[in-house]
Description:
With 339 residues, the protein is mainly beta. It is 4% helix and 48% strand. It has one domain (3-336): Methylamine Dehydrogenase, Chain H. The protein has one helix and 28 strands. A hairpin with a 5-residue loop joins β26 (307-310) and β27.
Amino acid sequence: MGALGLASSLALLLAVQPQVAGAPTWQQMPFPYETVASVAFAPDDEQSVYATGSNPATGESGAFHSSDAGMTWRLLAPALPGDTASSIAVDPGDASRLYATTYRYEAGLPTTRIYTSPDAGISWWLTGEFADSCGGKFIAGPSSGGEIYLDTGCAGHFFVSADRGLTWDRRADAFEVTAGRNGVLYGVLDGIVRSSDGGRSWTPMGANPAACPFVAALAADPDVSERLYAGTGQVRMIFTVCGGLYRSDDAGGIWSGIPTEPVSSLAVDATDPSRVFAAFWFGSVALSRDSGLHWSMLPPLNGGAPSLTLSASGQILFGAPSGGLYRMTFRKPRALEPR
């Protein structure tokens, strides 16, 4: 199916559900650079936001902080010449402790550098450097345990720090790793896999959704054990794509869902896990209010393959497409607001 045909298919599948009533529109944020790689909220203050980005025209790249939910930004640290700032995260148990990665290519091979800041970005320590990896994303473990995980993405290399970013150890490889309940990790490796030992080993749980097997985004329900959401997407040839939104209630053994255009990102509301957000390669964004059973369209984003970042309260959603940074603010029912 061609890209235009698949986009029309998405519209038909989701148009049976109305656009979210009263949904706000996207507001473009004045981010200093054109490309935004990663966004992270402070755990105790959703007005405090961190992001990494780059200017493709100049090669400049760095990490930034906003104290007003993205309206203004200040540079925390520029990347070294030749490096591109990639992921950034805030320690869930210590809002002043940050983690960030950069990557660079040397002789055609990628290398990731991991940095840790103990003072909200004032100073940074180089705490790891790993070849054959390209930035990736951080995954927070249980805050009491102090473990931080890094899925380096392109090669599937998986690392863990048990001392809040001071040292890093490589564990068994997996892609698209996400944290579930009670410290359980889920990932993708020739099917859905699960780890109960911090990624030292992975147990196969089931096949990927068969209609479009490439899992581009994986998310776990924070309240329901073994409930997973998968967004698939794959370009088979130019203008030939497949994708789908799927849910599993047995950790990936059996999937149900609908075909869509390729999915680029998923986000689950921690305060109301029935709310699930999905973004698609061509800029569409959808919201489910019933744990992925039905989906409604939100206003689309300009630009392709947006990534989504949701605040801990579920009230602020950032979307980062191929160019720029956008914010959508929700007013949730009072009963769902954190107390």
